[in-house]
Write a structure and sequence with these properties.
The complex is a heterodimer of chains A (475) and B (163). Chain A is an alpha/beta fold and 475 residues long. Chain A has two domains: 249 residues, Cytochrome Bc1 Complex, Chain C; 207 residues, no CATH class. Helices cover 51% and strands 7% of the residues of chain A. Chain A has a four-stranded parallel sheet with strand order 7-6-8-9, with helices on both faces. The two termini of chain A are 38 Å apart. Chain B has one domain. The radius of gyration of chain B is 27 Å and the shape is elongated. Chain B has two helices and eleven strands. The chains are: A alpha/beta (475), B mainly beta (163). Chains A and B meet through helix 3, helix 7 and strand 1 of A and helix 1, strand 1, strand 2 and strand 10 of B. Strand 1 of chain A pairs antiparallel with strand 1 of chain B.
């Protein structure tokens, strides 16, 4: 579930590579289009046939991953406020993928293609800008030209893919280090699954299109063509009302209702030495490194773009000046989060560890884990994201003996802020600046990222293990 | 256990993709059905006769717009009726296209009909004269299962055709 976007792109790669192979053998004419695909499917089944099946099944799989991707972002509420851009930019991508898929079915020129050509023409004819009926071209062979196939092939093979690549770039434009590729194991497994499916159930054409006949029964690809039967049941106009209505709702979703605007991260130049760690760690590219403006001896300073800041606090976790060991009161780091400041974090830790709990947990805002810990009266500190916790705070808890163990949890295995879990893990394992000091044993820090569908029972078990460890070591 | 779970997830994914790419089948026509597709574009007659301009009227116009005849651009509505076995299966009044209503009107309708022998009549009024049939064609056709019978107006012979 963490790689739905990148998995969609991976399916896109399969579609592209297999499509290039099909292009070599495909002939763009009424009589030859069908025959060239029949040749690939049957005579060259071991390569062309598999490529054709991969082309279809990877295209279909894209629809599943796109749907899950949209649902996931919607359910996690990661489409409002500053994130509206990626959400809105994703909508044309969905339309383009559908048009690509539908136009691909035209090129096969079998009975399904005939149905798709007539029905999609009827849909287009319902738009009151065309003076003649496009669907009329698909009622008699005499009205159809080979050049039409050339046009469709151009749209399917060159025109739309170019716009699609541009659309993907725009979709991830505001993200730092977007995940373009899924993990290698997932790629390998997915490709293998597609290959097995292609071998077991090769994609084949239906009967060759014959405009003198009306297809009686067709095998419909429900991923791409699910709206087509509605054209016959309702009317093309009502199908447009449905499709544009759904699209408009999705488009406006970030503002229905608008998310609660929160104050972005705040830079305090008196404490900022321009080290850039916050800019490196920000998942949204909201922090820019600029030349120093206050005359201090440092070369750089950082500036927060409030339009991009999601207020995750990961920048605070990256700031070396955010340390509870500082004597200055109140504790003001180079970059801070209004309403959930470094000072507030220290005060909450002090409050929660007054009675020396065996385990002090840090949990993300809004997570089921936080709710469970609070409901069971466990010592817990709420943070915007686990990436908000500077390693020095963990050092503070453990070296000052405010608790025996620390548990980081939240976000149900899917970091709400993309890299919060990764950065927290890397800082604790001393792979990423700022590192956890070596005097703190990493065996005293546990991390629990549960998938959303897992019960919080496993969290309870993990807490029990940590408490037992603390008791056994006499801490 | 984790590997088994992953294998099951891949299998479910494969079955879902493989199944929904072809199933369930969509039934478009019954075994005893055929299709009649009425489709054509035709420009109805203009709403008025051309008027020859007088010398004074011509001189009143800018030099580049001086044409001897002034013709109205607007066309009549097109009335079309398709009758099968004395039952009207399609009847429409079609407006001409274009901002000035001076383009062709387009008829497009697909009608599912039972197979067998049928008497067809198609009528069209393009003159705007109430009750007048300007074009008419009748024929008897035996339709086969799944046949697509196209009814259109052939501008070359100014007559309807069934194909």
């Amino acid at each position: 579930m963490n790689h739905l976007g990148s998995l969609t792109i991976f399916f896109g790669w399969i579609v592209l590579v297999s499509g290039l192979w099909l292009l070599i053998f495909f002939r763009t004419s009424i009589s030859d289009a069908f025959d060239s695909l029949e040749y690939l499917t049957h005579q060259q089944w071991y390569l062309g046939g598999i490529m054709r099946s991969l082309h279809r099944y990877a295209s279909d799989a894209m629809i599943i991953t796109i749907a899950l991707h949209v649902f996931r972002e919607f359910s996690r509420d990661t489409y409002r406020l500053t994130r509206w851009f990626s959400w809105v930019a994703g909508l044309p991508l969905v339309w383009m993928v559908f048009v690509l898929g539908i136009s691909g079915y035209w090129l096969v020129w079998d009975e399904l293609a005939q149905y798709v050509a007539i029905t999609s023409s009827e849909l287009l004819d319902a738009i009151p800008i065309f003076t003649s009926k496009m669907a009329a071209n698909f009622l008699q062979d005499s009205s159809l030209s080979d050049r039409f196939f050339t046009l469709m092939a151009f749209i399917h093979l060159i025109g739309l893919p170019i716009f699609l690549v541009f659309g993907i770039w725009l979709h991830v434009f505001r993200l730092t280090s977007p995940k373009i590729n899924p993990p290698k194991r997932l790629m390998a497994g997915t490709l293998l699954a597609m290959l097995v499916l292609s071998l077991l159930f090769p994609a084949v054409s239906q009967n060759q299109a014959d405009l003198a006949l009306a297809p009686q029964t067709i095998e419909l690809d429900w991923f791409y063509l699910h709206a087509f039967p509605l054209v016959q049941i309702w009317s093309p106009g009502w199908v447009w009302v449905l499709l544009t209505g759904i699209s408009t709702l999705i488009f406006l979703a970030p503002w229905l209702p608008p998310g609660k605007a929160l104050k972005p991260a705040l830079v305090d130049l008196d404490n900022c030495n321009g080290c850039q760690r916050c800019a490196d760690d920000c998942p949204y590219g909201a922090i820019q490194v600029m030349p120093r403006s206050d005359g201090k001896r440092y070369e750089h300073e950082v500036v927060v773009d409030p339009d991009l800041c999601t207020r995750c606090g990961i920048c605070v976790g990256a700031c070396p000046t955010a340390t509870p060991f500082r004597k200055r009161t109140p504790l003001v780091p180079g970059i801070d989060l209004p309403g959930s400041s470094a000072q507030h974090l220290k005060e909450t830790i002090d409050e929660e560890t007054e009675t020396f709990p065996l385990v002090l947990s840090f949990a993300c805002t809004g997570s089921a884990e936080l709710a469970w810990l609070q409901a069971h009266d466990k010592a817990v500190v709420e943070v915007s994201c686990v990436g908000q916790i500077p390693p020095s705070y963990l050092d503070y808890v453990l070296s000052r003996n405010r608790a025996a163990r620390v548990l980081l949890t939240g976000c149900g295995g899917n970091c709400q802020h993309r890299f919060g879990m990764d950065w927290a893990e890397q800082r604790i394992s001393r792979e990423r600046d700022p590192n956890l000091r070596r005097r703190v044993g990493t065996d005293r820090i546990a991390m629990a990222w549960h998938e959303p569908w897992c019960s919080t029972g496993s969290l309870n078990a993990q807490l029990a293990i940590l408490e037992k460890q603390a008791v056994e070591t006499g801490e | 256990m984790k590997i088994v779970g992953q294998l099951i997830a891949y299998a479910v994914f494969m079955v879902l993709v493989g199944w929904m790419s072809v199933r369930p089948e969509l039934r478009l026509l019954g075994d005893e059905d055929a299709m009649v597709s009425l489709s054509f574009s035709h420009a109805a007659r203009r709403v008025g006769e051309c008027k020859r301009l007088s010398q004074e009227e011509l001189l009143a116009l800018p030099p580049n717009m001086r044409k001897p005849d002034e013709c109205p651009r607007e066309r009549h509505l097109l009335q079309v009726e398709l009758v099968m076995d004395e039952q009207t299966v399609y009847e429409a009044t079609l407006a001409p296209t274009g901002l000035w209503s001076d383009g062709k009107a387009t008829a497009y309708q697909r009608i599912r009909v039972p197979v067998g022998e049928h008497d067809f009549s198609v009528r069209m009024n393009d003159s705007g004269v109430e009750g007048k049939v300007d074009f008419e064609y009748s024929t008897t056709i035996s339709l086969q299962p799944g046949q697509n019978l196209v009814v259109f107006f052939d501008p070359a012979i100014q007559q309807f055709r069934f194909q």
